[in-house]
């Protein structure tokens, strides 16, 4: 394929691929938010002294981390309707990504909280603060600084994992690329362009991660 033909191929595919890129970012951000909403209470449950509280959280984390995301997506979108629980494709995709991300984020948060010195807890208790005020005002601000890199890695992974929701016909970047490829005799440039877009998105979120780390480190100092 000559340069003119390549430019025409990319120009024709650009609108649908750019639209798919927008959906990819939205799915990743929505799933990150859902993952945080699930991950934070899960982390606290895993830190509990009571086994009845810890056990459900440990089972959830083990199941989500121990099975492929694609299998989880198939279970939510294709198997749950057989028992009367039916989700639209977008909801199923975001739910699967959120459940998966929540398990990994909970471990990042739990590890960061455990990384805060026990002396911080004892000092707060000696000042009359209870468990929850100590956690909110003293421990979490320090833990957040430690957890940002691993949490950002989860978000970057979500950017790439959104490609899997194409199996439930959600028109994100990968499905848009596949549709463009279907009408082309030369798929390689389109797949290379999609890979470049994923890479650029990852670089963008890496830059945001570094900016957030610098702000948190300045505040800590």
TrEMBL record:
<dbReference type="InterPro" id="IPR000515">
    <property type="entry name" value="MetI-like"/>
</dbReference>
<keyword id="KW-0472">Membrane</keyword>
<dbReference type="InterPro" id="IPR035906">
    <property type="entry name" value="MetI-like_sf"/>
</dbReference>
<protein>
    <submittedName>
        <fullName>Amino acid ABC transporter permease</fullName>
    </submittedName>
</protein>
<feature type="transmembrane region" description="Helical">
    <location>
        <begin position="188"/>
        <end position="208"/>
    </location>
</feature>
<feature type="domain" description="ABC transmembrane type-1">
    <location>
        <begin position="21"/>
        <end position="209"/>
    </location>
</feature>
<dbReference type="InterPro" id="IPR043429">
    <property type="entry name" value="ArtM/GltK/GlnP/TcyL/YhdX-like"/>
</dbReference>
<keyword id="KW-0029">Amino-acid transport</keyword>
<dbReference type="InterPro" id="IPR010065">
    <property type="entry name" value="AA_ABC_transptr_permease_3TM"/>
</dbReference>
<keyword id="KW-1003">Cell membrane</keyword>
<keyword id="KW-0813">Transport</keyword>
<feature type="transmembrane region" description="Helical">
    <location>
        <begin position="25"/>
        <end position="47"/>
    </location>
</feature>
<keyword id="KW-1133">Transmembrane helix</keyword>
<keyword id="KW-0812">Transmembrane</keyword>
<comment type="similarity">
    <text>Belongs to the binding-protein-dependent transport system permease family. HisMQ subfamily.</text>
</comment>
<dbReference type="Pfam" id="PF00528">
    <property type="entry name" value="BPD_transp_1"/>
</dbReference>
């Amino acid at each position: 394929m000559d340069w003119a033909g390549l430019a025409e191929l990319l120009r024709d595919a650009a609108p649908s691929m750019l639209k798919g890129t927008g959906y990819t970012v939205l799915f990743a951000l929505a799933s990150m938010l859902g993952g945080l909403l699930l991950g934070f209470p899960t982390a606290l449950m895993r830190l509990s002294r009571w086994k009845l509280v810890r056990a459900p959280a440990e089972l959830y984390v083990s199941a989500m981390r121990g099975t492929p995301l694609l299998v989880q997506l198939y279970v939510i979108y294709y198997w749950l309707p057989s028992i009367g629980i039916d989700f639209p494709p977008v909801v199923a995709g975001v739910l699967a990504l959120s459940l998966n991300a929540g398990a990994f984020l909970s471990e990042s948060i739990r590890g960061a909280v455990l990384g805060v010195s026990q002396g911080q807890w004892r000092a707060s208790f000696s000042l009359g603060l209870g468990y929850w005020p100590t956690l909110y005002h003293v421990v979490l601000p320090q833990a957040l600084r430690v957890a940002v890199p691993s949490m950002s890695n989860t978000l970057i992974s979500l950017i790439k994992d959104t490609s899997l929701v194409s199996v439930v016909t959600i028109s994100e970047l990968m499905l848009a690329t596949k549709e463009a490829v279907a009408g082309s005799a030369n798929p390689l440039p389109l797949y290379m362009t999609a890979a470049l877009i994923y890479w650029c998105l990852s670089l963008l979120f890496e830059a945001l991660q570094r900016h957030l780390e610098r702000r948190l480190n300045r505040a800590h100092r």
